[in-house]
Amino acid sequence: MFQLLDRGDELTFTLREDGEIHLSPAIEGVAHEDNLIVKAARALQQASGTSLGADIALDKRLPMGGGIGGGSSNAATTLLGLNALWNCGLDQDQLADIGVALGADVPVFVRGKTAWAEGVGEVLQPIDIPEKWYLVATPNCHVSTAEIFSHKDLTRDTSAIRVAAFLERGGRNDCQPLVQKLYPAVGEALDWLGQFGHAQMTGTGASVFAAFDSEAAATAVLQQLPENIEGFVAKGVDNSPALSKIPVHKNATGV
């Protein structure tokens, strides 16, 4: 289940005629060519055959290693933004196909709809979720997605469920017990947030979240965050704010 929020990093794209891709500022511990933003720009250059480039400025607002899709969202926004800036004319299907090669979570941000996902995350069914406000809290640790997915103790035999069952009964995160075991700080954050609502881990962590009926209720809990946990409050939305700013061709089905 992918729930979009009205909060994210901000990217600014400036056209270059020389084909170069420059990203600033550099992210500590991530080589320039390994950054998903740069990889997305390179992939779009190759797919479209354009000779244009871009200066890309990143205002990083989401925690790294939180499992909340910041890197995937940035890659998708890069595809959408540069597709428009370079006049590539690719539609959402084509951009999503490029995106899934970058990461399983990229297509949902290309399509920009809160959605139920199957496959590796590329088979998407847009759904409308009742409006909620989310407190997202991130303890001071960085969870390796690769470590969790490859760990021998990760549950791998969970029965598949359909969207109707999820909407009726909710679901569970099979990564959560393992991450709590390997990263005690995540367990402590879940215990703390669980005092105020149903606390769950997002993705492979380290971020955890709880849903509230109002911004005021979520903000009241945010103001009580322990010093070793960072957090923010955001509204759940069914449509990505990026798509309201970036024109993109719909695919043949209009999805």
What do these coordinates show?
With 255 residues, the chain is an alpha+beta fold. The protein has two domains: 4-123, 2-Layer Sandwich (Ribosomal Protein S5, domain 2); 133-237, Alpha-Beta Plaits, CATH 3.30.70. Helix content is 33%, strand content 20%. It contains nine helices and ten strands. The strands form three sheets. It has a five-stranded antiparallel beta sheet. The protein has a three-stranded mixed beta sheet with strand order 2-4-3, with helices on one face. Strands 5-6 form a two-stranded antiparallel sheet. Helix 1 links the parallel strand 3 and strand 4 (53-59). The protein is globular, with a radius of gyration of 19 Å. The two termini are 17 Å apart. The model has no long low-confidence stretch (mean pLDDT 92).
CATH level-two architecture of the largest domain = 2-Layer Sandwich
Number of domains: 2
Mean pLDDT: 92
Estimated helix fraction: 25-40%
**CATH class category label of the largest domain:** Alpha Beta
Distance between the termini: 17 Å
Number of strands: 10
Question: Can you tag this structure with a few keywords?
Answer:
255 residues; alpha+beta; Ribosomal Protein S5, domain 2; Alpha-Beta Plaits; five-stranded antiparallel β-sheet; three-stranded mixed β-sheet; 9 helices; 10 strands; 33% helix
Provide the fold topology:
Layout (H helix, E strand, L loop, with lengths): L3 E2 L4 E7 L4 E4 L11 H13 L4 E7 L10 H16 L6 H11 L3 H6 L3 E4 L4 E4 L6 E7 L5 H6 L12 H7 L6 H7 L1 H10 L6 E2 L6 E5 L2 H8 L6 E9 L18
Short synopsis of the structure:
33% of the residues lie in helices and 20% in strands.
